[in-house]
Amino acid sequence: MTGRDIIHALHQGRHVFASAIVGMSPMWPELAKKTGIDFVFVDTEHIPLDRQTLSYLCQTYQALGLPPVVRLPCNDPFEACKVLDAGAGGVIGPYLETADQARALVGAVKLRPLKGRRLAEALRDRSTLEPELAEYLEKRNGDKILIANIESVPAIENLHDICSVPGLDAVLIGPRDLSCSLGIPEQYDHPRFDEAVRSIFRIAREHGVGAGIHYWLGMEQEITWAKAGGNLVMHSSDLASFSRTLKTEIEQLRKALAS
């Protein structure tokens, strides 16, 4: 899927599949391509990636037709521009809590290279854009994906406003941070956590925005939430899948070869 295909699918409620990629081996992108995922989630918030390494990574995935969507270290539009200049196919804004934060990222992702007062005017009213400029911006940025991490109670309280910001393509729940904000750390089977997930999905879909949760602790729960409205299926990560599969297979070998 191209970036535009992914954006359309997210807004239309069709399922989009992705996974977090941590491995830096030059062989990894080709392996990721063969898994059937639609895009890769590259994290610069928690993973120590320098700018040059990130650019090599993004350019490689782009060359394979697998858009790399990069989570920023903070909700700073200048950070968004940096990863897009590196070759990212989109941006994830971490721990986003307000419509203003979402709007600032829209300016960086969807309206580049506008800046300053010209950008502020366009964010307030897109009709201020001359037709030729509007066409140029759409052609230049129309394939760039923008996702907001929803990870706190304040974000849920502001979610209607956040999802009303034109240019936001999807929201993605960060389960650990959200559970801590709810006061039930890592209790993903808690009724209040389940209620929060379903509420986020419902509000996002009411606004025609894609919705998902980055989950790695059980397929059954992940499928249940996807059926409850989560059309952005952000499944696990390369390292978690490798560890889980290898652990299971080594256990099987030890049992079969026990003397």
Question: Any overview of this molecule?
Answer:
Helix content is about 50%, strand content about 15%. By secondary structure, it is an alpha/beta fold. An eight-stranded parallel barrel has the order 1-2-3-4-5-6-7-8, surrounded by seven helices. The model has no long low-confidence stretch (mean pLDDT about 95).
Rounded mean pLDDT is: 96
Structural class: alpha/beta
Q: What's the arrangement of strands in the largest beta sheet?
A: 1-2-3-4-5-6-7-8
Q: Give the overall shape.
A: globular
Please indicate the percent range of residues in DSSP E strands (runs of 2 or more). Answer: 15-25%
Q: Major sheet: size, sense and barrel closure?
A: 8 strands, parallel, barrel
Rg from Cα: 19 Å
Which properties best describe this structure?
259 residues, alpha/beta, 8 strands, 51% helix
